[in-house]
Design a protein that fits this description.
Elements: E1 6-8, H1 11-35, H2 40-61, E2 62-65, E3 72-73, H3 77-82, E4 89-93, E5 100-108
Antiparallel strand pairs: 1-5, 2-3, 2-5, 4-5
The structure holds zinc ion.
Zinc ion is lined by residues 66, 68-69, 71, 94, 96-97, 99.
Length: 116
């Protein structure tokens, strides 16, 4: 595993993840309050858009470590969305050894969470 490119998720990463999730939940709650039930189609658009952004952000910023062979691999946005998630693990098929396992989530170093 290349330590220059990836790292294990740190406390500040968790803080960043919590902020993103909190912002998303806040958007859902506020938009529900103002838009439902009259503008449900607009509300649905906002929620869907937010969810897509969240998954794209996650797929771009995180990568996975195979517990079997140590391969570090990235997944597509779609795969990121549909595969089961643990707290800091994800159930994926490793592209190198072909085994399905709970892969550790790693941060990609180049990207920074919600950098302003
Ligand atoms: Zn593997």
């Amino acid at each position: 595993m290349n330590r220059d490119r990836y790292w294990e998720i740190t406390r500040s990463d968790w803080y960043g993840i919590a902020q993103v999730l909190f912002a998303f939940i806040a958007v859902i709650m506020i938009s529900s309050f103002f838009l439902l039930p009259d503008y449900w189609y607009l509300w649905l658009t906002i929620i869907t858009g937010g969810l897509v952004l969240l998954v794209v952000w996650h797929a771009k910023n995180f990568t996975y470590l195979c517990p079997g062979c140590g391969e570090v691999f990235e997944v597509s946005t779609l795969e990121d969305f549909i595969s089961p998630n643990g707290v800091n693990k994800k159930y994926l098929r490793c592209p190198r050894c072909g085994k399905r396992a709970w892969a550790d989530i790693l941060r990609i170093k180049e990207e920074t969470i919600l950098k302003k």
